[in-house]
Amino acid sequence: MTDTVAHMICVGATKAGTSWLYAYLRRHPDCWMRSIKELHYFNTVQNDSFDDQIAGREAELSRLEARPEDARLLTRKQDLRDWLSVLALRGRDDAAYLDYLHHGRGNGRLVGDITPAYGLLSVQMLRRIARLAANLRIVYLLRDPVERLWSQLRMNARRRVKDESQYERKALALMDAALAGREERAVVRGDYADTLVRLDAAFDPKHLLVMFQEDLFSKQGLARLTSFLGIAPKRFDTERRIHAGAPATLDAERHARAVAFLRPQYDFVAARFGALPPSWQRSLQMGAAA
Q: How does DSSP assign 76-89, residue by residue?
């Protein structure tokens, strides 16, 4: 482990391009990313939820042990065993977390952890991350607030229904619940205003990159990202979507209500960054027209 290696922590936001970013970095020759995308280390430490985390990882390992061997599964199983060893320390030694990221790195110039749940961490825990290592890079991705919420609710609906014919109805019901003040866990993942205030309080600005999802998928945005991370620009399929949600149509009336509900996010981001990306502007226009 050397101070010249960049340590990248992506703190979200959920459904804002983090899976695409992971796929990009995992295939990048300058990077070393383990096969577990979301380690959930710091939120597990903050919530003291090691028993649940360990049980979940052990269950996944048990499922994989029952499957026929192949190279990908061998890697995943070894990564799970290594990660369980870190979890067994129950957050007493962040050096073990770093060692996990670096193990097998070879000549990689960047290691990382992409866990959107870190966007909910307290300032105190974010400052613990800030002290983690030299050459730290924090990435936070933003997506149009309505699109992000709708994508997450569709994902939640897919997980909660057994009958696929009920999927779209369930997704719309979850949107109604979110706009009524329920489904708070989905809504809070897109509270950019609160998250950015905490990130600003914890990190030196030069260690923090905030990007719009649309920019991430552009040539210029990718150049900005790779420059920040200290890795070489590398072409990748910017049209490719990773873990795209199942399709479902959000009607104009609900869309307008969602824009009104999430308007503080649009206003905060506009005040901080200036002109909003085209998709954000389209959402606002659709909300005004409905």
A: HHHHHHHHHHHHTT
